[in-house]
Amino acid sequence: MDTKRMPLAELAIACALAALMAATRFHHFGSALHLPDASLAVFFLGGLYLRRTAAFGAYIGLAALVDYVAIAHAGVSDWCVTPAYAFLLPTYACLWWAGVWCSRHERHGWRGYARLAGALLVATAFAFLISNASFYGLSGYFGELSLAEYAARVSRYFPPYLASTVAYVAAAMALEAGMALAARTRWASR
Prior knowledge:
It is built from 7 helices and no strands. It is an all-alpha fold.
């Protein structure tokens, strides 16, 4: 990312999102000890706050690097690394461009938050479809399984896929609203 042209606030957001992805990407669904993977939310929020194509590329690189470290050095299974892995690019692009689209519209107030929620829901559903359809078609694991059977098996993963993404984005929106309120309160008290 071109940090010379990136304002300090955007740089702070970029670093916070990168740290969130790096800290959570090792455990896809999460557990009692680990937060669920925040990658989907990071790409949406990156599009919303950063909008730069270079930032998208940097997060794609970070995701691949974290996956490499997790597999090569942390004992995480490489079962998901198949030719379908390349389809994470359009998977994450769905979320990134939905975030960029939301950045061009007012997102405060009930209409703005409804638009943001709708865009997040649609982008997450398309991301789920792209990643799972490509895994079905390209992984080589499901030769005997029909597409309908595969869809029935993986559909149970959509609710946690969506819920964790929504939770991270909602937390970011709450943080943004809290910071805006604090800034207004500080300004009013002067």
